[in-house]
Amino acid sequence: KFSPNGKFILAGTLDNTLRLWNFNTGKFLKTYMGHVNEKYCIFSTFSVTNGKYIVSGSEDCCIYIWDLQSRNIIQKLEGHTDTVLSVSCHPIENKIAS
User: CA-CA distance, 30 to 26, in Å (whole number)?
Assistant: First the structure.
């Protein structure tokens, strides 16, 4: 997934991590951990409406939100009854579709 400014790429891998890369240089920048992703292709995204965050679904039926810079998990949203395969953030409001 490209960042809103097109400068970065967020990639999920089947080892429970998300990795942030600089698109222009190919340089690896950050790793985000704490969610479960070992079996499915889970789509993650950026949220920039009220700060800068990384948002991802998870195989543990939750949605995870990380602070982009610190890489800390800010929130774990529970309530799904199955794997959350995809998330999408509203471009101007603080809303997440899953």
Answer: 12
